[in-house]
Amino acid sequence: MDPVQELHKLGWTELEAKVYVSMTSSSQSLTGYQIAKIAGIARANVYPALDKLVLRGAILEEPQPSGSRYQAVPFKLISQAQLRSLSKSLSRIEQNLPQIPRRHRLITAHGQDILESYAINLVMDAKSYLDIGASHNTIQSLAIVLSQAHDRGVAERFVCFDNCPTPGCGVCRKPLGLSLGKFNPKGWLVLTKDNEETLIAMGTGDETELVLTSMEPVRESLRVLFSALQRNRDSEP
User: pTM of the prediction?
Assistant: First the structure.
C-alpha cells in the first residue's frame, strides 16, 4: 500500500501527499529546505504544498526569525477530523435530499436459521420502535439484540400470545397478554420495525414458515392489534 497514492485518492494533491508522508519520518520540526531534500522535490514547489497542508490542519507551522519550521500532525488526528467532517457532510446531504419511495416487498421462506437471520437484522436496524409478539420459546434467540435495541433507546411493545406462566421466558418486558387458547406447539413470532417492515413466522426447525413484508395493510393491522391490547391494559384498574 502506497500512502501517497491513498491520500491522493482522498483528494490530496500528489505533491501534498508526498510532502506530508516525507515529513512523518521525522519527529522534529523541519525547514522548507530540509523537507524538500527529504521529499526529493524542488524547494520552490515545496512551499505552496506546505501552505495547503497548514490549511488542511495536516502540519503545524512554527514561525521563527530564521524562517518557518514545519511539523507533521499525527495522521490519527487528521483522519478523525476528516471522518467528522465527512459525517456532517453526509448528514446534510441526507437531510436535504428527498426520500426515495421504497417498493413494497414480500418475501416468503422456510427454516429456523433463515427466520433468526431476518429477525435479528430487523431488530438491529430498528431506530424508533419495535412491536414484538411471540409464543413460548420463539423469542429467546433475539434476547441479545433486543437488549441492545432497548439500550439505544428503541421503544418496544411486547405481546405474549400464550400468556406464559411465571416467570415467563425472561425476554419480554411487561408483555401485553393475548390468549390464543391451548398452547400451540408450533409457536408464533410477529415483529414490526419502525412502521416499515413486518416479519410473521410460525413453526419450528425446518418446518418454520415465514413472511417478510413492507406492505402497509399487514403492518397497520398489527399496529391496531397492539394498540388495542395496550389500551385494554392501560384501562385496567
Answer: 0.53
